TrEMBL record:
Keyword presence, Hydrolase: no
Keywords carried by this UniProt record: ATP-binding, Nucleotide-binding, Transport
Regions annotated as coiled coil: none
Molecular functions (GO terms): ATP binding; ATP hydrolysis activity; transmembrane transporter activity
Domain ABC transporter span(s) in chain numbering: 6-236
GO CC annotation terms, alphabetical: ATP-binding cassette (ABC) transporter complex
Protein name: Polyamine ABC transporter ATP-binding protein
Native source species: Teichococcus rhizosphaerae
InterPro entries registered for this protein in UniProt: AAA+_ATPase, ABC_SmlMolc_Importer, ABC_transporter-like_ATP-bd, ABC_transporter-like_CS, Mo/tungstate-bd_C_term_dom, NA-bd_OB-fold, P-loop_NTPase, Transp-assoc_OB_typ2
Length: 363
């Protein structure tokens, strides 16, 4: 059993009548980078706090390295934290900030100096030890926080929206650095974010959370390509969704159109929801006819917003360099059958609040 393995066994957290986390059973492998992705208030921070020992679960057990740590105090867990709320001490130098976890553990001075230097070098901040946090950029401050979290060589690294305050370009830089550092150290890492791009780019696996309940766990491309339900499809990227009935040739919409998909052995006539990503829509091929509404130019790509005769709204990614037609221009469209994903049976019934035909929400 490796020291960095985490197992959640039926974890529940209530605050009075409010259930913040419900029946969480999952495991994180040694060295794995798992991202907990979900909207604000979905229970992400609560899960990390329970791993860190800052919050006790109402029910269930947490094991780390096979050992039941559910009621172990934080200082007895070998965990490094970079939390939004755990900012650097502004009055201490960078060196003293990084030394802090070692000092509270009673580490001898000589060893503190040696380890602090190594930790700062790791995050490429050698030579910045004498500065105060205010004399560093936001990205550098986050790297100091990372050095502080890693300086005592924890078994697990917990990151709660650590890059949220950085601007986009800097965020990507720190992401790249964080990922390579994590890989070099082979440290089990739990990252919390509501940023889907960050989740998709950094993680070995994603755990998608909504209202305290796990919606799906899987590799980023699986969760993106094979979402388990409407919530996941909508939360991760843009999703065109259609409700209809299965036929031999595809999904029949109430308006009569037959959309390409594979029935995957499901009974003809059964109701189903089809998910098609914008980048899979091929304009000009037939299946569905829609009218052009508007183009959104994003620099590296465009998105075209379309509407079917029944009033369903769609988003498609046109080929690079395509010129947008006039609003109202009819555009036949289709996709390869294998690019249509049928949501697993019964996933919508469980989520009446999110039902609606078809829905499209930019995440
Ligand atoms: N100490 C607390 N007391 C009462 N409710 C809390 C407390 N901490 C969190 N909550 C509630 O638990 C839910 C999950 O919170 P949190 O884990 O912080 O969500 P996230 O990090 O995903 O935004 C929210 O509804 C929040 O209001
Ligand atoms: Mg949070």
């Amino acid at each position: 059993m490796s020291l960095g393995e985490i197992a959640f066994e039926g974890i529940e957290k209530r605050y009075g009548p409010m259930v913040a986390v419900r029946s969480l059973t999952a495991s994180v492998a040694q060295g794995e980078f798992l991202t907990i992705l979900g909207p604000s208030g979905s229970g992400k921070t609560t899960i990390l706090s329970m791993v860190a020992g800052l919050t006790a679960p109402t029910a269930g057990r947490i094991r780390i390295g096979g050992r039941n740590v559910t009621h172990l105090p934080p200082q007895e867990r070998r965990i490094g934290l970079v939390f939004q709320s755990y900012a650097l001490f502004p009055h201490l130098t960078v060196e003293k900030n990084v030394a802090f976890p070692l000092a509270v553990r009673g580490t001898p001075r000589g060893e503190i100096a040696r380890r602090v230097e190594a930790a700062l070098a790791r995050v490429r901040l050698g030579g910045f030890g004498a500065r105060k946090p205010a004399q560093l950029s936001g990205g550098q401050q986050q790297r100091v926080a990372l050095a502080r979290a890693l300086v005592f060589e924890p078994d697990i690294l917990l990151l709660d929206e650590p890059l949220g305050a950085l601007d986009r370009k800097l965020r990507e830089e720190v992401q790249v650095e964080l990922k390579s550092l994590q890989r070099d150290l082979g440290i089990t890492t739990l990252l919390v974010t509501h940023d889907q791009e960050e989740a998709l780019s950094l993680s070995d696996r994603l755990l998608v959370l909504d209202q305290g309940a796990v919606q799906q766990v899987g590799a980023p491309h699986m969760v993106y390509r094979r979402p388990a339900n409407r919530f996941v499809a909508d939360f991760l990227g843009l999703a065109n969704m259609f409700e209809g009935r299965l036929e031999a040739g595809g999904l029949r919409l109430p308006g009569g159109a037959l959309l390409p998909c594979r029935a995957d052995g499901r009974a003809e006539g059964s109701p189903a929801t089809l998910v098609v990503r914008p980048e899979h829509i091929r304009l000009g091929s037939s299946g569905l006819s829609a009218r052009f509404r508007q183009a959104v130019y994003l620099g590296h790509l465009q998105r075209w917003h379309l509407e079917t005769a029944e009033g369903a709204r769609l988003v498609a990614t046109p080929p690079p360099g395509a010129t947008a037609p006039a609003p109202g221009t009819p555009l036949p469209l289709g996709w390869a059958a294998e690019d249509g994903w049928l949501l697993p049976d019964g996933t919508d019934a469980a989520r009446p609040a999110l039902a609606g035909t078809p829905s499209l929400q930019p995440a």
